[in-house]
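Students often ask why inverse folding is considered easier than folding. One informal answer: many sequences map to the same fold, so there is more than one right answer. In these notes we will look at a single instance of the problem. The structure comes first.
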């Protein structure tokens, strides 16, 4: 799982804090989630080419081939690499950014996570860089969906008081997201045309906006 994929898969009001805590209760659970997304489909050892399985190396943030010991480091190339901050704090911070409409300040992270301001500032900076869009189009196999971000309001009806967000994620790759004032088929198609290559293999879960 790349860092951008982690951000893209934490989905606003459709993904509650209770669900988040249940899925990522510990550093081990966070590391396993990263490993499964990045290497869960890997059936053959990159070193020898033989069919294998990988097991977690005790007291290390890596996995090893059961036959030859070749190691995979799931945090390499992510914002978590070489960080002494617990993965649970990183995941919590990303969750806060994902459900916040106006961003999250370093002071707010400091309060929520119980870390120093210096650590909170560094984490916020890395996550903002992570969220930055790049110009390269998505390609290969891409999953696209819409979500609605915003808290519950008494008397609200459906998604009327929530903010629509369109998103697309490459398999084991980059992600794109766009906030819109109204989710419609035309806007969804415009978003996809602007962000993915023409011959991309697109998965939409039969979403009425994205396939309409």
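Output (designed amino acids):
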């Amino acid at each position: 799982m790349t860092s951008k994929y982690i951000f893209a898969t934490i989905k606003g009001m459709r993904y509650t804090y209770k669900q988040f805590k249940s899925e990522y209760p510990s550093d081990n659970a966070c590391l396993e989630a990263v490993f499964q997304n990045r290497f869960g489909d890997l059936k053959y050892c990159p070193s020898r080419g033989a069919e294998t399985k990988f097991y977690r190396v005790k007291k290390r943030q890596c996995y090893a081939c059961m036959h030859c010991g070749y190691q995979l480091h799931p945090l390499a190339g992510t914002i978590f690499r070489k960080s002494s901050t617990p993965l649970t704090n990183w995941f919590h911070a990303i969750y806060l950014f994902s459900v916040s409409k106006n961003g999250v300040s370093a002071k707010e992270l400091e309060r929520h996570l119980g870390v120093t301001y210096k650590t909170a500032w560094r984490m916020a900076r890395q996550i903002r860089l992570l969220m930055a869009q790049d110009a390269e189009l998505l390609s290969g196999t891409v999953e696209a969906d819409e979500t609605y971000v915003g808290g519950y309001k008494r008397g609200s009806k459906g998604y009327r008081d929530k903010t629509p967000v369109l998103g697309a994620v490459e398999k084991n790759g980059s992600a794109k997201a766009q906030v819109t004032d109204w989710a419609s088929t035309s806007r969804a198609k415009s978003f996809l045309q602007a962000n993915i290559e023409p011959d991309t293999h697109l998965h939409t879960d039969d979403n009425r906006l994205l396939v309409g």
